[in-house]
Structure of NAD(P)H-hydrate epimerase:
Amino acid sequence: MLLFRLFGSALLLRVGNVFGGGIMTGKQCSSSSIRYLNQSEAVALDQDLFNEYKFSVDQLMELAGLSVAMAVAKVYPPSLYKSSLIVCGPGNNGGDGLVAARHMKLFGYKVAVHYPKRTPRPLYENLLHQCKNFGVDIVEQLPHPKDLINDYNILVDALFGFSFKPPVRDELKPALDALLDSGLPVCRYSKVIYLLFCCT
Ligand SMILES: *[C@@H]1O[C@H](CO)[C@@H](O)[C@H](O)[C@H]1NC(C)=O
């Protein structure tokens, strides 16, 4: 989802350069004109946004989360996929997920967040606080992955960003298993970025 963070915020600034121009004109685009950033390109773009364009983390996170929520709503509308679970990791990626949760709630989803490893910083604490105030359920203990289908129609993967390095910590394994083994539709950023580009 960190790519989202980049793309959501870079939308009007930089992505045209990254993609060789042509697609960020606000017009329709075709999938053939899109390629994905690799890890080092993503890191570089992130740095540019902070250093060159002077965006703050909060700004990027808000744009990213809103972009995710909009893209999810476009593909999996709340009228058909009413109940969502957003699986949030400890870093910026998880922060994007918390923002997405708040917006998805406003879009009419029933929203739950699983946030097993919390970052004790005001930014994250405030985002979580906002989720609670907006009526997002905070799920401490996930059911078995195969049982998620009883409670949810769609999952959003906000677990790891481009700075992820293996191995996955034990405390995050249930969250990862949920995303891998539920059999539910999982919104991951690669898919949603495409939609973000082509459908907005
Ligand atoms: C990422 O892409 C750049 C070109 O844009 C290339 O120079 C670099 O080697 C690539 N890195 C990896 C790990 O593939």
The first helix runs from residue 2 to 10. Strands lie at 83-88, 110-114, 137-138, 154-158, 186-187.
